[in-house]
Write a sequence for this structure.
């Protein structure tokens, strides 16, 4: 199910990631994900309604060991209990970016992926690109009004 960002549905993200969202101020939430078994952890911060040059946008940041990732203009996410991950989406024109955060404290980023890769036959893609097409194919369930 595709979700739009609201302060109320941040708890859905925390539930899938197995952590409790903590408010850090007005419309900023932090979720700390730990995987004791593999000695991994990351922190996810979600900023709702940031004022950037007079326009509101959402931003998702991931802090992990030797890694910092940030997805701007993020307005939708898919929280999957089955996959134990949350996929955050950003789109600009024919390009989609996706930031995937796993309950096991893993993280993947796919940036500026052309729409044709997401709607075509994944089996025809080079091996290194297949995973991207599969991971971001969730955008196909979004209607034509999915824009940022």
């Amino acid at each position: 199910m595709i979700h739009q960002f609201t302060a109320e549905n941040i708890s859905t993200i925390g539930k899938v990631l197995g952590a409790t969202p903590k408010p850090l101020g007005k419309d900023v939430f932090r979720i700390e994900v730990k995987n004791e078994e593999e000695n991994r952890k990351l922190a996810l911060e979600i900023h709702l309604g940031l004022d950037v040059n007079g326009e509101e946008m959402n931003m998702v940041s991931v802090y992990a060991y030797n890694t910092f990732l940030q997805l701007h203009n993020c307005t939708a996410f898919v929280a999957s209990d089955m996959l134990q991950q949350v996929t955050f989406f950003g789109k600009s024109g024919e390009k989609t970016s996706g930031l995937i955060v796993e309950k096991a404290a893993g993280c993947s980023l796919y940036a500026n992926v052309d729409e044709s890769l997401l709607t075509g036959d994944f089996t025809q893609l080079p091996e290194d690109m297949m995973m991207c097409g599969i991971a971001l194919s969730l955008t196909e369930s979004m209607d034509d009004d999915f824009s940022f």
Summary: Residues 127-136 form the longest helix (10 residues). Strands lie at 2-4, 22-25, 28-35, 40-52, 55-64, 67-72, 74-80, 85-92, 95-102, 107-114.
